[in-house]
Amino acid sequence: MTDGPSGSERVPSRDRRRFPGISSRAYEHPADRSALVALRKLSGFDTVFKALSGLLPERSLRLMYLSDSVRVSDQQFSHLNDMLRDACYILDLEKVPPMYVNQDPQPNAMCIGLDEPVIVLTTGLVELLDEEEMRAVVGHEVGHALSGHAVYRTILLFLTNLALKVAWIPLGNMAIMAIVTGLREWFRKSELSADRAGLLTGQDLQASMRGLMKLAGGNHLHEMNVDAFLAQADEYERGGDLRDSVLKILNVLPRSHPFTTVRAAELKRWAASRDYQRIMEGHYPRRGEDKDTSVSDSFKESATHYADSVRNSKDPLMGLVRDFAGGAGDLGGKLRDTVFGSGRAGGAGRQGPGQPDADGPEASPGR
After folding, report:
1. Residues 246, 175: contact at Cβ < 8 Å?
2. CA angle at residue 362 from 360 to 367, to 5 degrees?
3. On the CB side of 77, how many CA atoms lie within 13 Å of its CA?
4. Which residues contact 27 (CB under 8 A, 6 or more apart)?
5. Which partner from 22, 65, 225, 231 sits 20 to 30 angstroms from 268, CA to CA?
6. b/e map of 95-105 (b: 16 or more CB within 10 Å)?
């Protein structure tokens, strides 16, 4: 990446593979990618809403960050500025987005904006993570920018707010809940995509794992263990009965982010996949090919992913879905065993008190 008119080149602080011309399709989760491909094919869709940007708080937010946050540069938070340039160099993002540090004890990061993306890090996050962990976070946010998540998230949030104004229409609340639920499902998948971009940037899986653990348990790495943390994700997925499966769904519906243990397990699986290895070997889709991407193929890939997820899931509810799809003979008996357990009492005392969202307030589409 070139820095200014002098032509001096900024390179990563250690030897990391660079991905010239990489398309965001290389790292996007199938469900995220299918939605983005469809939106990109709607000619003029984002242009129209950019023209309506006066209706959105984007300009106000930019002024707020400029006036009441610290803009990252060579003079301020220079180590973060180096990380940002490194991330843009590695993912070949031509225009380096502005980045701000905002005073907020809640660890968070976000990428927003219609005309151009803006990255915001909170002081809680900057103080929590070490250099390599923060490098993955910055790459995560640059991944959002490269995917165009900032634009499409802002557009969809605008549409959601517009829908709220017509809630008086009969059945309007049900329609709005359907929009919000679908929107959050996409948000969650886009976070998995950005986690992958963070790994491609930092190229240090252990640092990415540590960062997610710190988001869950704070700055106490000496008290935490990656394998034990990942075992929690496995226990979460396979444990309990049908009632627990329903509670999992209800717990995740209001969230814009997947749970941290789930994110860690998803990222480790992707890091072990052939897809990741091929990218690291230099075999990945290029940006210039994006216009030729088939919407139907993307939706088929997304459908295949969800089918595979159901087939391979250890969750009791997904097991029941598999049995139903396969025409299980004693479905009633399986349902009874799934709900009440086999050979034990009905699981009294399994449900604990509700837990707050570890990622902070849902109003900001952050990390």
Report:
1. no
2. 65
3. 22
4. 143, 193, 196, 197, 200, 279
5. 22
6. ebbbbbbbebe
pLDDT in tens, 126-175: 999 999 999 999 999 999 999 888 876 766 666 666 666 666 666 555 66
Residues 6+ apart with CB under 8 A from 283: none
Distances (CA, A) of 39 to 42, 72, 148, 177, 299: 5, 32, 10, 21, 12
Strands 118-122 and 99-102, how do they pair? parallel
DSSP state of 112: E
Tokens for 101? Answer: 């540090």
DSSP 115-148: SS-EEEEEHHHHHH--HHHHHHHHHHHHHHHHHT
Torsion of CA 30, 32, 37, 43, to 10 degrees: 170
Compute the C-alpha angle 3/83/122, nearest 5°.
125
What is the DSSP code (8-state) at residue 366?
B
- Looking at the DSSP bridge assignments, the partners of residue 119 are 99, 111
Tell me, what's the pLDDT at 349? 44
- Other C-beta atoms closer than 10 Å to the C-beta of 223 total 9
**DSSP notation for 24-85:** GGGT--HHHHHHHHHHHHSTTHHHHHHHTGGGSTHHHHHHHHHHHSEE-SSSSSHHHHHHHH
Strand partners, 112: 118
Q: Which of 113, 138, 130 is nearest to 59 (CA)?
A: 113
Partners of 2 in the β-ladder: 9
Q: Stretch 51-79: mean pLDDT, rounded?
A: 82
The model's pTM is 0.73
How do beta strands 2-3 and 118-122 pair? unpaired
Q: Are 112 and 161 in contact (CB under 8 A)?
A: no
Residue 164, CA distances (Å) to 79, 158, 169, 320, 339 in order? 42, 10, 10, 36, 37
Tokens of 224: 């935490």
Q: Residue 71 forms beta bridges with which residues? A: 100
Rounded to whole angstroms, the Cα distance separating 323 from 304 reads 18
The H or E element spanning position 102 is strand 99-102
